[in-house]
Amino acid sequence: MEQDKILIIDMGSTRNTYIAREIRELGVFTEIHAHDMTREELSKITNIKGIILNGGENRVVDGVQIRASEALLNAGVPVLSVDHEGSAPWPQEEEARIDKLQSFVFNTCKAEANWNMDNFIAEQVAQLRAQVGDGKVLLALSGGVDSSVVAALLIKAIGPQLTCVHVNHGLLRKGEPEEVVHVFREEMGANLIYVDAVDRFLDKLAGVADPEKKRMIIGAEFIRVFEDEARSLKDVKFLAQGTIYPDIIESGTKTVKAVKSHHNVGGLPEDLDFELVEPLKMLFKDEVRECGLALGLPRSMVFRQPFPGPGLGVRCIGAITRDRLEAVRESDAILREEFAKAGLEGKVWQYFTVVPDVKSVGVRDHKRSFEWPVVLRAVNTVDAMTATVERVPYEVLEIITHRITHEVAGVNRVLYDLTPKPAGTIEWE
After folding, report:
1. Ranges for the GMPS ATP-PPase domain (predicted)?
2. 67: CATH
3. Nearest by Cα to 121 from 290, 343, 324
4. Between 340 and 66, the higher pLDDT residue
5. What would the mean pLDDT of 208-216 be, rounded to a whole number?
6. Does 265 count as an annotated binding residue?
7. Element (H, E) at 73
8. d(CA 96, CA 112)
9. Is residue 241 part of a domain?
10. Cα 189 to chain center, whole Å?
11. Are 247 and 141 in the same domain?
């Protein structure tokens, strides 16, 4: 069943996603688009029931006040004009705002509340089959939530026409490569190529301390490894990506500067001659997780914590060494295990360990030691723009400290990072 749609038109507001999310929570699908949509662009979207012109503080671009295109104004559907700053104020109280949206969506636009995950999956399966036909699809399967859900969706839609490539660059958390192989190759029957590129990555990173250089090396080397595997396969015409809606939104619109660029929004090598397949590009993160559960992925994979693209490489502060990287991996595993035992798994948004390239004096087996500290980090956030520090019970911290200092080689201290964002950031690098 094709879902009814409400279009949110970016007229300079920084709150487009808020309105989009609020309408989706009412059970109606929404999309965010630029103010200058053409008639051709508009014609490609079906089942439009209404349009919201969402104005705000960025309404003036290069000294000119932006206006909605004639195509939008003459689309033949109800239009609601919202201005968060001007003469038609949007209700600040959540209940009043929801009431206004609800009235517009259901009473004025006559939209049906038919946005749900079962309908989304059925629609995407049909679209994927139509797009791919009998062609072959290639997917870089990192083991993260987004790529895992894309893989599960493609397996449902086209089965053996999909080839997944899992590159182990040595910067994943403990047990993650094994879980990816087990879930997708053994449980879901995926055609999975496993690439052990640990030495290749760590050799490239040897002696590199600058965090941005580390990120560039990891990103570039990943592309090269993936290219090598892609070129060894024949007749692959499609490349699947785990692009999700925040990736597109954060990469910038015509009225809002980019929060950050995303590797899967315009960052592909030009010589990778594939047509893109991006079935999750209109989903928010919580919706991606819901989709994963509906497709039968294990909760441990679906609710995997946010994890930086460079992996543990940016939690091994300074130049990466194999022994210090292993200290990060082992201490992180202990932290996650003890948080789960204490009932903090799922309660705390993100928690991890950091091992800086510094040593301090300690005592080991009644002798002087000179070893690394492990820094614990546990934060809560709604949008990752600000973050608060979790008040972990002291007895839990004591257990974690004892385990890390006794079970992780080369570590003699455990510290807890009490810095919120701002002044700190969530990650250390």
Report:
1. 115-304
2. 3.40.50.880
3. 290
4. 340
5. 93
6. no
7. helix 70-73
8. 21
9. yes
10. 25
11. yes
CA distance 387 to 274: 39
Looking up tokens 């001659």 gives 273
Reading the block at residue 342, the tokens are 């204490």
Phi-psi domain of 186 (left: phi exceeds 0; alpha: psi -120 through 50; beta: other)? alpha
DSSP state of 161: G
Distance CA 351, CA 357 (A): 20
Q: How many domains does the chain have?
A: 3
Residue 423 within a domain: no
Which residue range is the domain that position 26 belongs to? 5-108
Closest CA to 233 of 311, 326, 167, 139: 139
Whether residue 141 lies inside any domain: the answer is yes
pTM of the predicted model, to two decimals? 0.80
Task: Read off the pLDDT of residues 259-285 as tens digits, 9 standing for 90 and up.
Answer: 333 334 344 555 567 899 999 999 988
63 annotated to bind ligand: no
Comparing C-alpha atoms, which of 235, 267, 261 is closest to residue 248?
261
Residue 332 counted as an annotated binding residue: no
Contact indicator for 297, 148 with CB cutoff of 8 Å: yes
CATH code: domain of residue 368 = 3.30.300.10
Annotated binding residue at 143? yes
164 and 55 in a common domain: no
- CA atoms of 386 and 102, how far apart (whole Å): 30
**Residue 12 contacts residue 60 (beta carbons within 8 Å):** yes
**β partners of residue 82:** 54
Is 148 labelled a binding residue? yes
Q: Are residues 378 and 404 in the same domain?
A: yes
Residues 323, 245: Cα–Cα separation, whole Å = 38
